[in-house]
Amino acid sequence: MASSYPDVMPSIWSQEELNDADGLAPERELAFGTNLAAEGRGKPQNRTWLPLATAPSSAICVSSSTRQNWESVNDVDPIPGVTHRFHHLYLA
User: Fold this and answer.
1) Which residues 6+ apart lie within 8 Å of 2 measured at CB?
2) Rounded-to-integer distance, Cα 12 and Cα 9, Å
3) FRET pair for 16, CA 20 to 30 Å: which of 4, 28, 59, 88?
């Protein structure tokens, strides 16, 4: 994580995000459940992807149809024609 977005974000950003990770876990868990329910109804703003294999390790990733805060702050323009952007990947 120490080298996340090295050309976009200040170096302290990665450490601050890592420091906040444990406190964000319950919020993320709730958001993933909400995303999956919306996916089931066919109306997701965010799409949550889970692996099909039942292995000892686990993974989850999320893509979104809206800009993230860091994209807005850094004036990152969306790519024309792209409806969702990958923005979370968690591996255990």
Assistant:
1) 14, 15
2) 8
3) 59
Q: What is the pTM of this model?
A: 0.46
pLDDT (tens, 9 = 90+) of the chain, 92 residues, equals: 455 667 777 878 778 877 877 777 788 788 778 877 887 887 777 877 777 766 556 777 888 877 777 777 888 777 788 777 887 777 76
Measured CA angle at 19 (ends 9, 5), to 5 deg: 20
> Residue 57 and residue 91: Cα distance in Å, rounded?
7
62 burial level (CB within 10 Å; 0-12, 13-18, 19+): buried
Cross-sheet strand order for the sheet of 46-49: 46-49, 59-64, 85-91
